[in-house]
Amino acid sequence: MSPPPNASPELLEQLRGERATIADELGELSESHDRMVEAKSEETFTGHLRRAIHGSGRLVREIAAEAGVSSQALCEFLEGTRTLRSDVLDRLAQAVHATIRVEPRRPERVPIGGAPQR
């Protein structure tokens, strides 16, 4: 989109500044999206919770309000750049009606000088 034909130098400068700001924000949004995709693909307890939140179809601000956490904190958790206390994780799971089962895994036993037994 080109500037108006009779645009003043001040308006042109303002438009250049706004374009630069938009370009910076797009880069930040893209990086945030990449972090979010990576964090929700983790095979961890929090990765499963992130997938449940994303799959709930609810707005982040609604889930955050119900769980008693700020939208900013929830967004940072979803990006994997913030940890949350266990009670907050419990409330998030309740807010999206998630059932997350944690089952202990038996460690593989490795005999001396041998391959793992199953």
Describe this structure in words.
The chain is mainly alpha-helical and 118 residues long. The chain is built from five helices and no strands.
Q: Which oligomerization state do the chains in this entry correspond to?
A: single chain
Query: How do the SSEs run, as a string of H and E?
Result: HHHHH
What structural class results from the helix and strand content?
mainly alpha
Number of strands: 0
Terminal CA distance reads: 64 Å
Biggest sheet record: none
Helices and strands in order, then pairings?
Layout: H1 9-40, H2 45-55, H3 60-67, H4 71-79, H5 86-95
Name its key features.
118 residues; mainly alpha; 0% strand; elongated
Provide a quick synopsis of the model.
The chain is mainly alpha-helical. The protein has five helices and no strands.
